[in-house]
Amino acid sequence: MIYVTLNLVVIIKKKVCDDNDACTIDSCDPMSGCIFYTPDCLCNDNNACTTDSCEKYIGCINIFINCDDNDASTTDYCDEGAGCLHKHSDEY
Length: 92
Hints:
The chain is mainly beta and 92 residues long. It has 2 domains: 1-38, no CATH class; 41-92, no CATH class. It is built from no helices and 8 strands. The protein has strands at 2-5, 8-11, 25-29, 33-37, 50-55, 59-64, 74-79, 83-88. A two-stranded antiparallel sheet has the order 1-2. The protein has a two-stranded antiparallel ribbon with strand order 3-4. The N and C termini lie far apart (70 Å). 0% of the residues are buried.
């Protein structure tokens, strides 16, 4: 931005606050400068069947968990709210 006032030129350069990290929220505070914040909930998909993480260059990663309890007498599955569940075959 360039302002001209009474034959005086003032150049204001806007600071860019980008740390190139997909896991942070970047902002600029006029008094203190750049702020890079990593909230705990950034990648939480609210699904108990996934592990949630963030990779700097990719962003959010939500990987489905393995609910296999290695018990042939159960049917293993995952409920988004409750997580891993194991039903015995006699419960059907």
